[in-house]
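Quick one:
INPUT:
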């Protein structure tokens, strides 16, 4: 059974830093493209960042130069380092694991990030 468990969310002030973690089990982690998505109230879920099997990263324009995604295949974990947080970063953040060229696509339960003064 596949599990993606996010952690690290919380309530922070504008300009603060958070690091999200997503621990995966039940998959061959190194074979999956890993991503972080977010969904704010009343909005569609959107891609925040992704990292491919070979470490290639991709970021949404809104988070470029502020967020950094990384993975540790030995720990089956993907991270999202979030710096200079803004109120508009407030959302539920979801971890995603997708095996490219297949229908294998898994989601975590989400972790809330709230940026407010």
């Amino acid at each position: 059974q596949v599990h993606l468990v996010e952690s690290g969310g919380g309530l922070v002030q504008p300009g603060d830093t958070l690091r999200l973690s997503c621990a995966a089990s039940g998959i061959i982690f190194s074979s999956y493209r890993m991503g972080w998505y977010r969904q704010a109230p009343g909005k569609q879920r959107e891609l925040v960042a992704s990292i491919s099997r070979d470490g290639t990263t991709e970021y949404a324009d809104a988070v470029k130069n502020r967020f950094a995604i990384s993975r540790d295949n030995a720990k089956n974990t993907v991270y999202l380092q979030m710096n200079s947080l803004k109120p508009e970063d407030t959302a539920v953040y979801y971890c995603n694991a997708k095996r490219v060229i297949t229908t294998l696509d898994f989601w975590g339960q989400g972790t809330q990030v709230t940026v407010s003064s």
